[in-house]
Specification:
22 helices, single chain, elongated, 4-stranded mixed β-sheet, mainly alpha, about 475 residues
Amino acid sequence: DVDTHHCIGLVLYQNHWLPTFETVVVNFPAMVVVHAMAIQLFGNTVSGFRLLEFLWQTVALFAIYKVSRLWLPSRASLLGCFFFAIYYVFGPDQFLGQPDCFAILPLVLGIGFSIKASREQAVRAQRLWAIGAGIFYAIAVWFRPTFSLVLVLPLPFLFDLRNRLGRIRAILALSAFALVIGSYVLLLASVPGGLQQEYLYFIRYNFEVYSHAYHLEAYSKRAWIAAGMVVFWSLSEILKKKRGKGEEFSMPLAERRFLFASYAAVALDVILMGRLAGYHFVPFCSLFMPVLAAILWEWKDVVNVKYQKWIFASMIALLTILLYPSGKLSKAIWSTRSEAFTEAWYEDPVDSMTVAYISRYTNASDSVEVAAFSPSLRWRIDHPHVTHFTTVVGLFTRKPDGRFTDYQQKWREEYVNRIASSRPKFYIAQNPLSNNHEASGLTLLLELPGLSNLLTQSYRLDTTIGRYWIYERR
């Protein structure tokens, strides 16, 4: 996903626009903009994008602190930020660069602005905070469309729709939200066939094909962890009411209901995705970190024994260990011998060797087409491409009945025709298709009607470098 978004971001940066949609993965427009920003600021490198991601999540950390301070004392808020940092930095490596992870910042700001809109006494300030909330929720939707639930579901619990002021704040938030989303629709409309392509790729392809392509039931344990967090929170609330304490973290009933509804909306987002990938749980777990910190802080005050500090420190250490599932950073790099945080530190040696080989035997104007599931090589090769298929995944994923859709048949035909008419100097096939060696990419590619004959007649197998088979035009 990261390489795919980076490829499209590079096209956006080079053309200052997307002349056509570059792939079937176009339902998260914000990630394309983020990658284009990283290229503009730090160059077309992995390290540049990682730097922007670091800065983004650092701001998210401060946002979590400021918003949680609306209810929690400073030390409890800092503890929640500590848990967030541990969870994000040392979580699974698939967290890196995912839209769900970037959506944490606008979601947190949307929640914070909503609370400020409900608390503010000045009418003008109320309205400005409500407008800001709608804008940030819309930005979150640009990362993942289903995050619209986080605005729509909790809003009635915070703004009393029975009175005029409550209705005005709700209308302003929804209007700002609709305006930002509408601007994206207008941008799509300005691209020839843009709305039709978005409908085809985002709605039809996702629902008819992609949602059935990968089954991640093995990750369902994460759903149980998330459910356990909710149960843990609920039991803590019940115990707090029974003992009649915990006033330090008390909040108005409307805000409490709003937060419960917000967490429920984020959890519902994961359920609607139906895939249970680890990064889909990141917004829910990240927003939950201040809650865990608050619970631990309250328990510290309840435990009235000689070794209270040691018990509290042990609880924090245990929770930190539970939030430390694997070392993500070590999985995100290929060459630990290179200088830390340099491009070579992040780069796959096979990609580097392939880029060097192609550069040695091409001129700047020579076209090169890369056929890969993960297009890490495509954006690293600074040459024109002859198709707009950033990744070939849409050419091979099938419906549950094993057939291709009518538009996929057109894509497959278009793909071969583009290569036949443009005849790039090099055609590079990733074989196997994915790094886990589950499928032969070359076998799938040769199943495309006409491609096998085209490669036989017009190309020769020049060499192989790792997982890449390189064909040169005769």
